[in-house]
Amino acid sequence: MKFTFANIQHDLLSPGNIFWKKNSGGAVLISKKGEALNLKLIKKFFDAGIEVFMEDGIDLHVHHEMKTIYEKYSEEVLMRDKMIWRDQLIAIFRKEFIEKELVMQFELDHLAWKLFSSFKLPEGLNFIERDTDLFRRHLSVASSYTFCAFLMGYYEPNFLNRLFSKTLQNLMDLGTSAHVLSLKEKLEYLRLQESFSSEDYEYVKTIASDEVLKKTVMFEQYDGSGPRNLNSKEMTDLEVVFVAISKLFGYTKESRENILSAVVKGELKCGGRTLKMLQKVLSEKEKEMDAIA
User: Fold this and answer.
1) Each residue of 201-232: pLDDT tens digit?
2) CA-to-CA distance for 64 and 7, rounded, in angstroms?
């Protein structure tokens, strides 16, 4: 797919390293991959007929194809036909995010923003202005959570859109009055704990209000030592997955392989039954058996 302004005009984060080409032949970086897109400057160059190109970029053709299929999936009213579109999406997931080596989480996050986000571009930019790394981490959690819900059989597009947007908003609302660096240090400390002490719980309350803690499992632990005292057997399947995803993504700058690959490799610690179900959906062998049946 030829790189044009239309390819990226609704994007929040840059899908690759984007440059403009000088008359001398040199290239100047406009937007770095994974950081906020400088859409105004990029459009200015395109409008002036100046060459703009992208390197180390996401395959925009594949993302466009998946967005088109998801739109057809969303519009379909017959469940039988809806499942056909769903199977097509999962087949592309398998090909692009599992069978290919080292496809990073950012590519899945970029896709999730296109498919599920209800935020306007200025709202997304406000998230980034607060802290890019914090936003990128929370975006990874929200996108991973939503894609896992889709694989687990939560079919309704409106539910998936709400799940993504509400999760991202709730995460970005944590500790809004705290200094960002201090907040990230606190959140990273809490993420690494397998069980909360009373001191840890007091730590949690400096980040989230009691009202928020009553409505979410953001700080729950599988052993029941979280704010709501829910153990893994008392959580819903989605809540179990959310806790596992929250443990997986840290608050450092290091990137990691995508969540679908983590599921297949058994790196998502969400309990044997739930993990096996997710792995089954993503299994090519299982798909072949269904086709034979």
Assistant:
1) 888 988 998 888 888 899 999 999 999 999 99
2) 9
